[in-house]
Amino acid sequence: MLAQHTLATPRADRRFFTAMSIVAAITVFAGFAPTYFLKSAFGAPALSPLVHVHGLLFTSWILLFIIQTSLVAVRRTDVHRRLGILGGLLAGAMVLIGFLTAVAAARRGASPPGSPPPLQFLVIPLGDILVFSSLVGTGLYFRRRPQIHKRLLLLATISLLTAAVARLPHVGPAGPLAFFGLTDLFIVVCLVYDLTVRGRIHPAFIWGGLLIVLSQPLRLLLAGTDVWLAFATWLTR
User: Fold this and answer.
1) What's the number of CA atoms in the CB half-sphere (13 Å) around residue 41?
2) Whole-model pTM?
3) If you average pLDDT over residues 192-202, what whole number do you get?
4) Which secondary structure element, helix H or strand E, spans residue 38, and what is its range?
5) Quick one: residue 111, left, alpha or beta (phi over 0 = left, psi -120 to 50 = alpha)?
6) 149: closest CA among 159, 141, 161, 158?
7) pLDDT of 146-176, one tens digit each?
8) What percent of the chain is modeled with pLDDT above 70?
């Protein structure tokens, strides 16, 4: 029985991580279809070049994540490793452009419906960038330890989904509790998977998941402080 479980786990992992990458892509498409992917069909306003670059980079990450999980699933880890270099460069560009895009939106006075005022809301995307870069950086550091690496990269991708989840129908107007809570369901799925297949939760899912979840109320608490508002005002001058 133990031998069968040991043999089944790699197969289950390949299916699970590939499936999660596809679900992430579907979530991103559903959230951003009206304002980005199908914006002409929805009559959405034109986007700035910075937002277009932002969308291209973040979409590329989702597509690359699908490719990377699929390569592992078909046992082409040699190609997976080579593409990992591209992934690291892409992540760096995403952090820079994501920061510039978030600051530019706050400078314009833009924030999603149901969200705090722009300067307060700025803490949410900047927090996403910080969490994403932390998870990606740690995941790349542990690239020679696949069980840690793939879990941290999956969590890094999940941390990006908040913006898409907030744009799903009826979610954004419900406020941060709704879009953070729905994003956290992806983490719950990861924990349930490990418990079901491995019999225990891998520490990478525990600590990485805690980083995402605990950062959410901390950001909301920070958003209304004088220190944050002064910092956000300085950033958006």
Assistant:
1) 6
2) 0.93
3) 95
4) none
5) beta
6) 141
7) 999 999 999 999 999 999 999 999 898 888 8
8) 96
Give CA separation, 120 vs 98, 101, 125, 173, 236, in Å.
Answer: 17, 15, 11, 16, 12
Q: How many domains does the chain have?
A: 1
**d(C-alpha 134, C-alpha 25), whole Å:** 21
Distance CA 163, CA 172 (A): 9
Element holding 90 (H helix, E strand): helix 77-108
Using the structure block, give the residue that is written with the tokens 């277009």. 52
pLDDT at position 6 over 60? no
Spell out the long-range contacts of 14-19 with Cβ–Cβ below 8 A and sequence spacing 24 or more.
14/69, 14/72, 14/73, 15/73, 16/193, 16/197, 17/69, 17/72, 17/73, 17/150, 17/154, 18/66, 18/69, 18/70, 18/73
Report how far apart, in Å, the C-alpha atoms of 223 and of each of 123, 167, 230 are: 6, 21, 11
Residue 114: pLDDT band (50, 70, 90) is: low
pLDDT at 3 over 90: no
DSSP symbol at 123: H
Residue type, 229: L
